[in-house]
Write a structure and sequence with these properties.
The protein is an all-beta fold and 165 residues long. It is built from no helices and 14 strands. The two termini are 26 Å apart.
């Protein structure tokens, strides 16, 4: 954990926290209250609460997710999406009071899912598929967070990251 000097951008160590397994990806909800860590070797997502005055993360449990590579919170702070190595995306809802995740199912993705992102409007999810050289595209149901396939963007060379602005 680090504190950011808002004038210079310099990072100052603020301690560390143990999560289960080997952390592969981290995301923070848009309200700055909760953090989620994809723990690849432990097949789980750690849930943490962020102390707004100290910046310290406080463990809040974990939830199973099959070999998670990447985790992302949508811009509304209601849903979490996890790209799992075993060719699917896990969908979760967030309890906005506690930060606890509730599993809402999975959706198929290409072989070797690697990274997930949500567009800034909160309408779409994109998943980089390293094994098939594609990016899978999904539409988010605004009331449930469920994903519906929009097809694929193909012809990429081993995508390991995806960003949308």
């Amino acid at each position: 954990m680090y504190t950011v000097n808002t004038t210079t951008g310099v990072l100052t160590a603020n301690g560390s926290i143990a999560t289960q397994g080997s952390p592969h990806s981290v995301t923070i909800d848009p309200n700055g209250k909760f953090a989620y860590v994809a723990n690849q070797s432990e097949s789980s997502v750690s849930m943490l609460t962020l102390n707004s005055s100290t910046g310290v993360l406080i463990p809040n449990g974990s939830i199973g997710s099959e070999i998670p590579y990447s985790v992302m919170v949508d811009p509304t702070g209601q849903f979490v999406y996890v790209a799992n190595q075993d060719s699917f995306v896990s969908m979760y809802t967030i309890n906005t009071s506690t930060g606890t995740l509730t599993a809402k199912g999975t959706i198929a993705a290409g072989n070797t899912t690697y990274a997930v992102t949500v567009d800034p409007t909160g309408k779409f999810v994109y998943v980089a598929i390293k094994g098939s050289n594609n990016v899978y595209m999904y539409t988010i149901d605004a009331s449930t967070g469920a994903l519906t396939s929009n097809g694929t963007a193909s012809g990429l060379s081993q995508p390991v990251s995806v960003a949308v602005y």
